[in-house]
Structure formats: C-alpha cells, structure tokens
Amino acid sequence: GIGLLVLLGLVSLVYWREKRRLVKATTAMHLSLTRFEYRDLQYATKNFSQKLGGGGFGSVFKGALPDSTIIAVKKLESVAESQGEKQFRAEVSAIGTIQHVNLVRLLGFCSQGDKRLLVYEYMPSGSLEAHLFKRNESMILGWKVRYQIAVGIARGLAYLHENCRDCIIHCDIKPENILLDMEFCPKIADFGLAKLMGREFSRVLTTIRGTRGYLAPEWISGLEITAKADVYSYGMVLFELVSGRRNTQQSKEGKVDFFPTRAMINIVKGEDVLSILDTRLEGNADRDEVMRMCKLACWCIQDEESQRPSMGQAVQVLEGVLDVNVPLLPRSLKMFADDDEVSFISPSEFLLSLETTGTSSYDSIRSSVPYSTTIPAIRATSI
User: Fold this and answer.
1) What residue range is the signal peptide (predicted)?
2) Residues forming the annotated binding site for ATP?
3) Which of 101, 218, 221, 258 has its CA 20 to 30 A from that of 125?
4) Architecture of domain 128-336
5) Is the pTM of this model over 0.90?
6) Cα(114)–Cα(47) distance, rounded to whole angstroms?
7) What is the pLDDT of residues 218-272, one digit of tens each?
8) Of 46, 67, 49, nearest in space to 59 by CA
9) Catalytic residue among 172, 230, 257, 303
10) CATH 1.10.510.10 boundaries in the chain
C-alpha cells in the first residue's frame, strides 16, 4: 500500500513539473517565438496521434497546450542536412516576425538533434482543398465566401512579396496550403519553407503528386524563380475557386478536361461565364465577379512571367480598382492539358474561326493577338 502511494506521488510530481514547464513555455509564446522541447510537443499532441494532413515536406498534427490553446505541429522531414541548428533557428525566427491577417501565424519551433518541428496556430475550418473538392454538401462554399477567399490569398501574397523586408516567395501555393479560420478568412500556410528547407525544397516540390499542376513553366524549364511563380500558382487556384473542381479531370472515356482552357475559350467567345461556374452553386454568383476572377486567372498564368500581374495588381483587380482585358491564351495550357481534343492552331486560323461564328469579341481579339503566338484551342465537342 505504501509503495503504491509513493508511486502515485512520484507520477503526480512528474506530471505537475511537466505541466508547470509547459505553462511557462505557453506564457513565453505570447511574447515571442517559443522554443519547445521535443517531449513538450509529444505531450501536447498525445504522441502525434491526431494527424491533420501531410505532404512532401512533413506531416501536421493537432495538439493542445496546458492553457487549452489548440496548435498545429508540423514535423519537417526534408530539412537540408547541411543546415545547422543555429541557421535553422535564425530562419525560423525570421519567419516568426512575419505577421498578417492572411498568413498562418508561427508560434514556436523545436530543434533537437535531427528533429525539426514548427508550431502554428490551429485553423478550425481546415483547408480550402477540403471544402472545394470533397463532396460534402454541408461544406459547400458560397460564391461570396469564395470571392473573399480569393481576395484574402492575394493580400497575403502581396504582403509576402511587397511588404516584407526581403521578398518572400512561397513557391507552393495550392488549395492544400490555404487554411480557413472560424469565419472562413483564408490564411496562407508554409510560407518561408522554401528557404528553410534549402536545396531539398525544389527537388521535393517538383516530385509531389498533385503539386505540378500549380507550378509555373519556369519550374520545369529551369529558369530563375521569382515572385511571379507564386502569381501563376495563384491563377490556377482562382480557376478552381470558380469551378469547384481540380483543373485537370479525366472523363470516363479517358479524355482530359482542362478547366483553364475551357474558361478562356468561354470568355473569348463571349459566352455566359456562369455556365462554367461550380454547378453546386446553381448559378448563385455575381456575374461580374466571376468574369473578373476568370480574367485575372488568365492573366496570372501567362507563359512569360513579365506578362503576369504583381500580387498587388491582383488585389486591385478583385477590388474593382484595376480593370483587366482578356489576356492571351498561354501556350503552356496545351502541355498541361495533354488531350487529343486540344489542338494548336495559328492565331490567324483562330481569329478566322471567330469571325465565321460571328463572335462579338472578334475585333478586340484581332487587335490584341500578336501573330507570333501559338494559341491552344478546344474543339466544341469537349467544351
């Protein structure tokens, strides 16, 4: 009996000390970036038992601190081996100073031996990916919410590109990395990881399944990556906000339907833009806003980075401050579509086809299309 009491006393003492130490860490967290012990995070996440998601750079787990603060803990898996603890802490500290309403806030980190973990604020509404692509009727995002999400992402990226001391290129913008709070305010996750992960980042990024569709052509061609690579990825996300589906879908017949090409043809031909809207919305959307978003998306995914807008300009377009004309159809759409129904035609042939169909947009297109450009088009059978 006495032995049992002593054992219970020791267990209680260890528990009390652990809790007290974690409370101190939590208090410090509100003042600056907190350095956690690995065992702290094991305790907070119940030994990493509740997985929220994961990708090529690591897995994310839900946890709770002693003061009941809910956290998301990311276990990094591909940190550059050459990066020492001092360099890692310096990079993490720099990320911790970046705060914006549309960026997920970094609360702390762990760097112990070969273990590298990041502690973020928890986003209760999950990712944009879950709301757009998982067919749960209770999770359907209305048009107004989608539009505000588009604006929020643009503001967050504009802040990273234009308002930080050094321009921060995210490099991995996609619906999985857009998280939503209780009010469905979008917050960009994983910013700063590109520099933190070192050379390994590019290798992992270009091999992750599901990521390549958001990557700008310069990732494939090996050109220097600038902030305009994020702009391209953002444009691809805009298309998915409109359609409520992945940009690339395969039909039962094995044909590939590439939504950006379909959207571009719709705009060029002057067809009703609501006809390409997510069918679950049943046409309940502002036609001008849908058109504005589609035009901006087309502008963002231009082949040449110099032809894409800045994220600051993207914000202005969505806010109605800056107008945008119908951009050219990028050549790279053919590469991503990979569909027999998508064929390359010359601009003169394309314009002639519009002229014979009596499209009202013909004159404006004819004056804006340079004849050195190749334009991919979709036959009517696959639209």
Assistant:
1) 1-16
2) 75
3) 258
4) Orthogonal Bundle (1.10)
5) no
6) 17
7) 988 888 899 999 999 999 999 999 999 999 887 777 777 889 999 988 988 889 9
8) 49
9) 172
10) 128-336
